[in-house]
Structure prediction request, 750 residues.
Amino acid sequence: MYIYSEVDQRLVEQRVAQFKDQTQRFLNGSLSDDDFRVLRLQNGLYIQRHAPMLRVAIPYGMLVSEQLRTLAYIARRWDKGYGHFSTRQNIQFNWPVLKDVPEILAKLATVQMHAIQTSGNCIRNTTTDHFAGVASDEIVNPLIWCEIIRQWSMLHPEFAFLPRKFKIAVSGAVKDRAAVGVHDIGLQAVRESKGVGFKIWVGGGLGRTPIVGKLINPFVPWSDLLTYLQAILRVYNLHGRRDNKYKARIKILVKDITPEVFTQQVNQQWDLIKNGPDKVTLEQVQEISNRFSWPQYDCSLSDYDSIKNCKENQKFNRWLRTNVHSHKVQGYASVTVSLKVSGVPPGDITADQMDALADMSEKYGFGELRVSHEQNLILADVEKRNLYLLWQELDLLNLATPNIGLITNIISCPGGDYCSLANAVSIPVAAAIQQRFDDLDFVHEIGELDLNLSGCVNACGHHHIGHIGILGVDKAGEEWYQITIGGRQSGANQKNNSNKDFSSGGAAIGRVIGPSFARDQIPQVISVLIKTYIRLRDSDEERFIDVVDRLGIEPFKSDVYSDPTLTQPIKHKEVIGGQ
Amino acid sequence: MVSNHVRLIKNGRLELDIWRLFDATTQSIPPHDSHWIVKFDTWKQNIDEFQLAKYPIAILISSDSDLSNLPNEFLHDDLLLGIEFIAIDFPNYTDGRGYSLAQLLRNQYGWRGELRAMGDVLIDTIHYLARCGFDSFLVKQGHDPKLALKAFEAFTVHYQRSYLKPELASE
Prediction:
């Protein structure tokens, strides 16, 4: 965990003071609604359906126990006793009162947390692999680089008012778990003979115009990272469209002027600044690295210990298979705590669960946790010999659902129940699917499957990159749901994971299978898709996404649209294609 | 109470602003008297005439100006003597192009003279503006210029090394 320096702390406190003043000026009428709107957004505060929504940053997904306890405190004191983890390593509180927000921010600052730039047209919270620092396939530890980017992007004077929001993701491992291909900037750390550097993708993104990013530079040396980012942002800030918010993301600029011209303009700007004061130095990297409290692992642990003794427990065994992940240090594992239990909105967590997990992170690790963009929590450093004990504790709290990577691990936005942007609800749809697939044996038989659900085209549930994606659309005031298949966040198809795939980040945008469906039809649609998959797969090893890759969407489409229970009520012609 | 007219911040103090914007629709250049602000395009089209002008003028750059086609040395010429200040317009405070334009003027084109922020200039944006190289600010109506002055100190520490610290900018 990165420990704040005095400078870090003062900056966050000064931002709290600034926001307190802004809120007071708004409440006493000296700051207009219009002027306040963007200022509050830059501090994570939306006006939502029921109340303001406060989005708190969890920089690159890292949390320590004390911070989680503070989030629990906030949930109890100023909210309704729970919080919601978003798909961007943030936590959202849906019920605070505006006048209390400065106090909430002050409380956050006491544990080195903030809500800075969690919304608005600025550089957002940088995200990374939820196994950063502990993954067994890690090439470069992205945590240090994320912190360097966090500092650089925080309250950046030139890029506070961009044409649109701007999201950066960093991956440091062989397998991209940060979805670098679908971010405004995606960075893949690489280690080559010339040292550590970054592959740089630009212009990926979901939303209305889902596009996979373009590789604009195959190797930017680490020392040039910030100046290169600055050059990209400057070109975007000057030339990104501001006349139409739906065409304002960097992906549209890159597409309009072509990646080649864009790269040329970036290089022109870069030449002016690359040797300036923002060049990263070794001292700076060391200083930041030294501020992390790196876990002190016990290197004498053997790899098996007690796991073998517990294999007879079928429930535990299932959990081991899906929720426990390999660790770079022998004798340790990372554990995903599933926040995807049936009946609870995906990503929701109660204050009591937060407190319990904070305790467990200390008891079974170094007090560190990660938040995943799949809306789960990770206990990063669990000794394998303690897995059985941990599982028992988690199971008691309903946090051991063995569904990570499986169909019921639904990634979803809060949807129309909470969000004023949404066209349709998502939580009840997720619940209905989880109910339909309540047979765990069957869920495990289906195997790896990402199911993503968004309540509107803003795509907060990342539906485009779900192996199955569900999008809520509004048609004449009614809720409809459009289905896509074949999306993926990174090189999902391991069989065909050629170098070419890797060089494009391996992300793919799902394809729409046809006209959309009414809400109560969705579980049946998913059932048909799964039946088709099971009929067509050549073995248990071939995953849903692999079958879609191999055979295309046609067999799925034809089964869904010839299903007698699905054909009847479809009266509505879909219109989304153009977006 | 500060008068509504005294809303220019310059050299860390409040001043009365007496400059006016020239309307180029009826004549190509302003009359031969002082304190005219002319738009960047008007200035570019009439550079020769402005060089002969008796009084210095100010140039207003709109947020959608494209400075990328200008030669790097376009401001290093003698004609700069006739420019009192360069202003960048913020049609809306959420239009952030002016920040990058300021950086280009300061760093790429070497403008060392006064750089003024005009338009939708808020108490809440002064700090960023100062960091990007602005050193005078016409605070918008309805925002107390005295509070704007205090906003230079909103942050006393910063991360981005290549940008100014506002206390220096307001010296």
